[in-house]
Write a structure and sequence with these properties.
heterodimer; A: mainly beta; seven-stranded mixed beta sheet; four-stranded antiparallel beta sheet; globular; B: six-stranded mixed beta sheet; five-stranded antiparallel beta sheet; 11 strands
Chain lengths: 117, 111
């Protein structure tokens, strides 16, 4: 159980265009999902917390107008990178929390590798 | 804010034991977790410590000392497939599920 599906797994786009990434919890409901960004050989940086039915909570330094998050249902959150630029090229990973052995365990999607030309 | 420090790289021989350390500074602390990530893949949960002491899960064990703001992941009977990046992560707010990750340790297992 506890599977998170992310799509697309990789995308290449032109500078100035927008890209949408979907994150779905397949076998459980997730009122909260989390979006992380990871540059090559670096750690996972939390970008924002996606809340079902309400506005996302962004971490300091993350532009909410550039990284639009929508959590319209209990199983789907989307991240839209607007007006993408080469510096936005990165690995974007979503996750959802579940309880396991008393811990708040994050189940991650397989990630979406974005390349902006 | 949060700060979690780990060694950047560790190399160990197949069959050996390796320890990956994590020191943290957080405004609040509600548990230390460990995740494994293979290249290009998703992080997967390994272990969790809410209280001081050792938690054992098969070949992997994790230790926490809250007074020292320190924990470690212990991998025994290393296998080639254990070559991956390992991250410690903390939850710094009660009632919240988001995690903040450490700098990551790249483990390379050699024959």
């Amino acid at each position: 159980g506890a599977v998170v599906s992310q799509h697309p797994s990789w995308v290449i786009c032109k500078s100035g265009t927008s890209v949408k990434i979907e994150c779905r919890s397949l076998d459980f409901q997730a009122t909260t999902m989390f979006w992380y960004r990871q540059f090559p050989k670096q750690s996972l940086m939390l970008m924002a917390t996606s809340n079902e039915g309400s506005k996302a909570t962004y971490e300091q330094g993350v532009e909410k107008d550039k990284f639009l998050i929508n959590h319209a249902s209990l199983t789907l959150s989307t991240l839209t990178v607007t007006s993408a630029h080469p510096e936005d090229s990165s690995f974007y990973i979503c996750s959802a929390a579940r309880q396991a052995s008393g811990a708040n365990v994050l189940t991650f999607g397989a990630g979406s590798r974005l390349t902006v030309l | 804010g949060q700060s979690l420090e780990q060694p950047s790289e560790v190399t160990a021989v197949e069959g050996a034991i390796v320890q990956i350390n994590c020191t943290y500074q957080t405004s609040g602390f509600y548990g230390l977790s460990w995740y494994q990530q293979h290249d290009g893949g998703a992080p997967t949960f390994l272990s969790y410590n809410a209280l001081d002491g050792l938690e054992e899960t098969g070949r992997f064990s994790s230790f926490l000392s809250r007074s020292d703001s320190y924990g470690y992941l212990l991998l025994q009977e290393l296998q080639m497939k254990d070559s991956a990046s390992y991250f410690c992560a903390v939850r710094d707010r009660t009632g919240a599920n988001n995690l903040f990750f450490g700098t990551g340790t790249r483990l390379t297992v050699i024959p």
